[in-house]
Amino acid sequence: MALTIAHVSDFHVAGNPSFLLHGENTRANLAAVARSLGEHRPSLDLILVGGDVSHDGSPESYEFVEQIFADFACPFVATPGNHDDRRRLAALFPTGNDVADGLLATERAKLAVVDSQIPGAEEGRVSSIPAVADSGDSLLLVLLHHDLVQPDGGGRPGMRIPHEELSKLLTLSPPTVFLTGHRHLAMDVCIGDVRILGAPATSTQFDFEGGVPRRSSRSIPGYRTLTVEDGRLHSTRIVDVAAGSTPA
Length: 248
Prior knowledge:
Blueprint: E1 3-8, E2 20-21, E3 24-25, H1 26-39, E4 46-49, H2 59-68, E5 76-78, H3 86-92, H4 101-105, E6 109-113, E7 139-143, H5 163-170, E8 176-180, E9 187-191, E10 194-198, E11 206-207, E12 214-215, E13 222-229, E14 232-240
Parallel strand pairs: 1-4, 4-5, 6-7, 7-8, 8-10
Antiparallel strand pairs: 1-13, 2-3, 9-10, 11-12, 13-14
């Protein structure tokens, strides 16, 4: 039976409930996304969190996220973004490779969680590739925050990565699907046998006119869903969500 996975990223929740990111209340938008996810809860098997859960690393921001997802029974797995406090994120969501092993194995899939955070920097780096990346004929899902490619030509710092390391990542045993965030826009790029799927942000979407991130004129909170079946990515789609009122 196929697995349904949600990929959510870039919450940018701050300690201040009134915080706005490019004019968007990130708490209200995350609450709207959580309501949408909740409507799919009976069929939702796993939620992958792509980082930048917090905007300021504050305890209050992680406490809010914990409250928002308190009623969800399915497992969560997360990787830190450049804005996250690693310790506080790990206390909220599991960040290891083995959390979803048993679940994913039922459909011949594996998960590699890559920490691409460079403390104090906006860009990211891959310091090591998890051993689970030797996936044989299983579908390999690689979860990391920073974008590997910038198909829109945007100049925002993404992954600081030597060419030889990028080559290693892009030549892992197929089939491989990278799940990224950071750019605040949906992305679907194929490089050989590797597919790179960027999740839209739950906070606000960006355009990169002139290489500078600006709030998109179509800034709708969203997330990505994936259906995994028998060692392959069966389908994926973007879910746009109408933002709700500001939560307390």
